[in-house]
Amino acid sequence: MSQVKGTCVKSVIEFGSKRGGGEKWKDILAELKPEAQSLFSRAILPGDWYALEAYHQLLVAMAKHLSGGDPKLGIEIGRKIMEDGLGGVYKVLLGTGLISPKLIMSNANLLWKRYFDKEILTIAEVDIRHVRIQVTAPINPPKVYCHALLGGILQSLEMVGAKNTVGQELNCRQTGSESCEFLVNWT
Ligand SMILES: [Zn+2]
After folding, report:
1. What's the CATH fold of domain 73-185?
2. HEC secondary structure over 75-96
3. 11 C-alpha vs ligand 1 centroid, how far in Å?
């Protein structure tokens, strides 16, 4: 079973409950299957692992209730995840110029492993102005999840000084590709 780390789930729940307020958050939880519902109704422990399938359900329900079903909400969710993640671990190094956009992208799979146990992130290409990243796993994700990945990449780059970031998902597991493939350029 593929899993996602509690730190990530915690950021997502903070985002959703803040954006939606108490009533909408209840609607979001009510949308989930019973197992996922009870999982995310309890306190989230940052060090625990949570079922990726339940996490996918949560993201889909959030898009339904917070953005009228628009999966692009994922971009904002992914940004929040990495803002919390990098802000905690690398706070002192950010903005010092010691971590360049290329360096952080070259090490993206190390960061990735802090969040996902079975999803595999591969850096297909990276240089000082662009990165191409592939993500594969046994479970096909909903589109909002793919947008969250893209949002996380954009946020990570911007936090180490990348400007004018532009990203897109070139290929997606949802439309039959073997991996979700992202291309991001910056200046
Ligand atoms: Zn995808």
Report:
1. H-NOX domain (3.90.1520)
2. HHHHHHHHHHHHHHHCCCCCCC
3. 21
